[in-house]
Amino acid sequence: MNKAIYISIVLLTILAISGGIFVFLRPTTTSTSSGGFFGFGSTAVNVQNSTDGDTNVPQVGVSTLQNVFKIAEGPVAGAVFTQTFNPTTTLARYTKADNGHVLELPLGVSGAVARAVSNVTIPGIVSSVWTTGGTSTVMQYVDSGVLKSVYVAFEAATSSSATASTTNPSRIRFLPNGIVSLALSPADNKVAYLLKNSNGGVDGYVSNLDGTGIKNLFSIPLSQVILSWPSPTTLLVQTKGSFGVPGITYSISATTGVLSPLLYAPGLSVSANKTFTKVVYQTSSDNNATTYAHDIATGQDAPLANNPLPEKCVWSTVFVTDAYCAMPLDTIGPTYLDLWHQGFVRTADAIINLDTNTGIGSVVTIPGEGGANSTIEQLILSPDGKYLMFITRGDQSLWGVRLQ
Questions:
Q1: Half-sphere exposure of 115 (CA within 13 A, CB side)
Q2: Helices and strands (DSSP H and E) totals, the chain
């Protein structure tokens, strides 16, 4: 990495942390808000459009609540949608957290029973990150105090019959130990990951999914960070958000490793869409937590209804500026981000569909109406946009939502 760039990053980091910076690259709004669901206990004021000065107040619509159904008992570490043909069937493929076994269940098929995709036992899975088509996953687990990561690949099934695929993985390869954070490329052919370095920061690497072809892409003088890979050409590295604590997000070229500062804010949480044209971010300080949609091309920021936490959202696969987010039904305080990370949050969530162009959010479903009131841990969207899945906090059971 160029020494001058590295030094500049250090200086920016020191400045942000010591000065408590609340400066965005192209600031266009100011607002105040407090927690709440769909306007109850929530306000957004003095929000100015950067081009015409008009007040931009988010609106909320309500759509027809959808059916919710249980897919699997927990604990589930991760899940993905797959599709088979002859006949065409959508399946939920998921990793059991207690033993690493992989199962799948056809959706919308009366009397369907989950079948094994893999019976390879890996106890204590803490995460399972899947490729889009569900043909491979990177599992992480703790062994003797060491966080290990393993790539597991499967043959693609062509039929939904019970004999369509084997119960043995086609390939198993280990990635380096101690990976701080990892993300799979949108093209499903690469993995990016962070390893701590001797300078107190992290080095970013990119390799093939099986760990071959390793390339040291960048270094950054921060250690408590999260990596994501929203679009084919862009990676994001953000500091782990905490109420009132200055946070930083960098965009990184997936080919050259060039870093560009993107956002600075206290209590920062960030998520970018699949074309890297929209970024949803939340800031929290001074007893306020406010969420915005940032337009990369114009630099305009607009407040989003209900202040969704970006890391509880998943971007639409059909409409690139829409996102599905899990929102607490109860009023929450500005320290929600910290409580969420610490595992103390146990509020029932609704799922909303958020249009980041208009700020309008529509209720998709309230899971309690189709099953149990749920604190949603992660959302998964099918490639065709017809189904959602979510994993609940606590029992880590897996649920489905039919969208169409």
A1: 16
A2: 2, 29
- DSSP string spanning 182-243? EEE-TTSSEEEEEEE-TTSSEEEEEEETTS-S-EEEEEES-SSEEEEEEETTEEEEEEPP-T
Calculate the CA dihedral of residues 23, 29, 34, 39 and round it to 10 degrees.
-150
Q: Domain residues for 132?
A: 3-61+85-317
Q: Is 242 contained in some domain? A: yes
Cβ neighbourhood burial of 200 (10 Å; 0-12, 13-18, 19+): exposed
Decide if 218 is inside a domain. Answer: yes
Number of domains in the chain: 1
Q: Read off the pLDDT of residues 30-84 as tens digits, 9 standing for 90 and up.
A: 333 333 343 322 222 222 233 333 322 333 334 445 588 999 999 999 999 998 8
Structure tokens at 79: 């899940």
Any domain includes 155 = yes
CATH number (domain holding residue 106): 2.120.10
Residue 387 placed within a domain: no
Give the DSSP H or E segment for 18.
helix 3-19
| Strand partners of residue 263 | 249
Q: 142 near 124, Cβ under 8 Å?
A: yes
Report yes or no on whether pTM surpasses 0.85: no
Residue in the block written with tokens 């959706």: 107
